[in-house]
Every structure is written in structure tokens, then in C-alpha cells.
């Protein structure tokens, strides 16, 4: 499966314990998303199109209305990266 760099960055953050908060409007559609790292920082690479592609590929999932987290399938597709924290 071909996964872009922004998708890889988001999956890497989720694999390290991050999550994606989502807000719904009046209907069932998601209107706003925010990707939060395990340290509480916001990841700007997580845009709506990236979120939609990850969801369509079933690499992230939400259970019971909770924030989106990486799925088992997503863990298989995330590539190893060095953590850029100094």
C-alpha cells in the first residue's frame, strides 16, 4: 500500500500514543479534527484530506465515539522512524 509522507507522520504520532480529536456538526459528518501527540502538542500535518485517506484505508479507528487511534492494520503499515526529539 502506498502511504504518503504526511500520512506516515500522522501514523507515527498515533503509534507513539497520540490521538485525533474530532468534532461533529449538527449531523453525523465530522467537521473539525485535531491531532494531538502524547505530550499534548498539536500536529499541523494532520489535515482533513490526510485524515479522510487514513480512515478510508482503515489505518485509524474510533470505538464508541472516542478519539481516533491507530488500528492494528495501521500498526503494520507504519514505517520505523527516528524520533526527532532532542
Could you walk me through the main structural features you see in this protein, from its secondary elements to its overall organization?
The chain has helices at residues 5-15, 48-56, 72-77; strands at 19-24, 30-36, 42-43, 60-61, 69-70. The chain has 86 residues and is of the alpha+beta class. The chain has one domain (5-75). The protein has a 3-stranded antiparallel beta sheet with strand order 1-2-3. A two-stranded antiparallel sheet has the order 4-5. A hairpin with a 5-residue loop joins strand 2 (30-36) and strand 3 (42-43). The N and C termini lie far apart (31 Å).
Concise structural overview:
This protein is an alpha+beta fold and 86 residues long. It has helices at residues 5-15, 48-56, 72-77; strands spanning 19-24, 30-36, 42-43, 60-61, 69-70. The strands form two sheets. Strands 1-2-3 form a three-stranded antiparallel beta sheet.
Amino acid at each position: 500500500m502506498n502511504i504518503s509522507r504526511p500520512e506516515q507522520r500522522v501514523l507515527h504520532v498515533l503509534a507513539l500514543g497520540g490521538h485525533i480529536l474530532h468534532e461533529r456538526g449538527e449531523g453525523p459528518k465530522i467537521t473539525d479534527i485535531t491531532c494531538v501527540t502524547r505530550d499534548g502538542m498539536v500536529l499541523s500535518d494532520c489535515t482533513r484530506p490526510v485524515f479522510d485517506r487514513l480512515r478510508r484505508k482503515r489505518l485509524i479507528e474510533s470505538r464508541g465515539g472516542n478519539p481516533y487511534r491507530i488500528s492494528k492494520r495501521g500498526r503494520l503499515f507504519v514505517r520505523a522512524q527516528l524520533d526527532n526529539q532532542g
